[in-house]
Amino acid sequence: MPNPYDDLFGGNAKENFGAKLPPQDSEYPENKLEPLDEILKLNADFQARAKDFSELLSRLRVIDHKAPNELLSVFVKMADSHDQGSLVGEKSYHELLSKKFRLIIVPMRELASLHLEAVKQFNDNIDDSYFSVEKEDVEVKSDKDLAVDSLLLQRKILEEAAENLQTLAHALQACERRMKKYINAGGSNNLSASELAILESNREQLTSGMEHQFEFAFFDINLLDKAAITLGIYAKETTSQYLRKLKQAFENRK
Predict the structure, then answer these.
(1) How far apart are alpha carbons 113 and 119 in whole angstroms?
(2) Is 8 domain-assigned?
(3) Tens digit of each residue's pLDDT (9 = 90 or more) over 22-70
(4) How far apart are CA 62 and CA 83, in angstroms?
(5) Nearest to residue 37, comparing CAs of 167, 115, 147, 148?
(6) Sign for the pseudo-dihedral over CA of 149, 110, 55, 217
(7) What is the domain extent for residue 217?
(8) Distance CA 49, CA 161 (A)
(9) In whole angstroms, what is the distance from residue 157 CA to residue 154 CA?
(10) Residue 53 and residue 115: Cα distance in Å, rounded?
(11) Does the residue 88 lie in any domain?
(12) d(Cα 162, Cα 123) in Å, to the nearest integer?
């Protein structure tokens, strides 16, 4: 099966980047990197930051919070292992899930910004006709392949982060559904409908990406895209189309 990440950059990910020739020697200030070297530097920066980020994803163990299938639970009586047993417990759990969400989305946004910059540079400057004034053609080809491989790895890392955020978003919603049984329950477990409504509204601001002005769901290709790939009907995107959509993930979403 072909690599689905190749399709995100067009028919051949390593050759389908629109570009222009690099400027001549006279246009380069002293010590200024050539376009391909700038991309490699951006990719190295991403890789360095991604190491700590990937370790963070391991430590947070988001999979432990995966909520049961809501539709299935309608037809089959299932015990909810995440039920905290009290309103205080559910509120604390909700706060924990929200904290983990923020711990992921903040550095993820920074990594996505680096990814955007690298993709833009590649789209603007690199194609089959790109040449270097300092390197042989074989070295240029090797560097281009390395750059594209790095961009595809970045996409995979950001996709995994998006999956984690989606899992936390669903867990938060499930937690709020459990809280409904405490509305006007009386005693120490009493919850007002208005308090839950505010909690839900604040969660929506967070999990929609509005709080951080970042549409993280752009990086989640596990649904329609993967289904289409499996069926062999995936619509290939050019790099310029991918870049345009990537930019939109950072636009003001109010």
Answers:
(1) 10
(2) no
(3) 455 445 555 678 999 999 999 999 999 999 999 999 999 999 999 987 6
(4) 16
(5) 147
(6) negative
(7) 14-20+33-248
(8) 14
(9) 5
(10) 14
(11) yes
(12) 24
Q: What is the pTM of this model?
A: 0.79
What is the three-class DSSP state of 191?
strand
Kindly state the tokens that stand for 39.
Answer: 């991309």
Say whether 183 sits in a helix, a strand or coil. strand
Q: How many CA atoms lie within 13 A of 136 on its CB side?
A: 2
Residue pair 127/18 in contact (Cβ under 8 Å)? The answer is yes
- The token pair at 229 is 């790939």
Nearest to 95 by CA among 199, 181, 183, 196: 199
- The two three-digit tokens of residue 159, written as one number: 């996709």
CB under 8 Å to 96, separation ≥6 — which residues? none
2 lies in a domain? no
For residue 188, is it within any domain? yes
Position 76: which residue type? Answer: V
Indicate the number of domains in the chain.
1
Closest residue by Cα to residue 159 from 220, 76, 117 = 220
